[in-house]
Amino acid sequence: MTRHYLVTGGAGFIGSNYVHRLLQRGENVTVYDSLSRGGALRNLEWLKKSFGEDAFKLIVGDVRDAPRIAEAARDADVIVHLAGQVAVTTSVINPRDDFESNAIGTFNTLEAARLSGRDPIFIYSSTNKVYGGMEDVELAEESTRWLYKDLAHGCPETQPLDFHSPYGCSKGTGDQYVRDYSRIYGLRSIVFRQSCIYGPRQFGMEDQGWLAWMIIAAVTGRKITIYGDGKQVRDVLHVEDLLSAYDAGIEKIDKAKGQVYNVGGGTRNVLSIWSEFGAILERLLGRKIDVAREDWRPGDQRVFYADFRKAKNELGWEPRIDLEEGIEMLFNWVKENKNLF
Hints:
Blueprint: E1 4-8, H1 13-24, E2 28-33, H2 40-51, E3 57-60, H3 66-72, E4 78-81, H4 88-93, H5 95-115, E5 121-127, E6 139-141, E7 146-148, H6 165-185, E8 188-194, E9 196-198, H7 210-220, E10 224-227, E11 233-238, H8 239-251, H9 253-256, E12 260-263, E13 270-272, H10 277-285, E14 291-294, E15 303-304, H11 309-315, H12 323-336
Parallel strand pairs: 1-2, 1-4, 2-3, 4-5, 5-8, 8-12, 9-11, 10-14, 11-15
Antiparallel strand pairs: 6-7, 11-13
Helix pairs in contact: 1-2, 3-5, 5-6, 7-12
């Protein structure tokens, strides 16, 4: 059965990849995007080149515009809410814009879903930043990385929330609203708390999409700055694996509605951001990379990797793309598309 998908932020990195997947399998898609991000027009051009000018409907709009998002959601069977402000450092510089984009924008999109009368499935892309610095969790230091001392499988969904940074607060607000709209209004909503997502069509910047940014910088000869000791750890998840989590949640909505799931690479795909990733990048590039060093940034977790066993048990989902394989795929994509940067 063909569904009508509304993808907010559908011209962004994750959004355009999901729209591509949906169009490939013949779904009816509306892209809702403000086109304010640098790569948005390039991603739309890619989608139109792949599927034709009229393959999807485009609504240029901001999720802060409640009437416009309500109109866009009127016929949607599935709403995938990816729009919003995406960087911690930007949120620190302009917390009002961050709050309006993420908290109010998510509230507007939820209300649009609730009032549409179609009982849509609602997917929300949350973040590991809702767990804050996890200062109560003891760490262990190894030669190239920090690790959790006692969380053998990584951070579980039961870890106490601690919204740290304006970005953490605004995304956490949306996270809890999406949960509660299922409890109070019966909305068929799912929260996916995402770790470090990477892949093609990611026009990474220094303060967001670090893995893609470092690959782009290395390939194009730009300066790379390492904040902190470079041993801080993330679990990386290829975008195709993330999209499979969305599909699994939608397929198993009767089980998944009202639930929160961590989706990250897990312990198999843990990587320190420079002590280990730098070595992989230098191998792919074939030369040494000089980097600048700066102090830690506010809200930067020393360690985060997700315990995704709940998603595995309830949705039958787990990452399929190996860390080094995925990094090499992205490196080759950046090399082949240097003209885009």
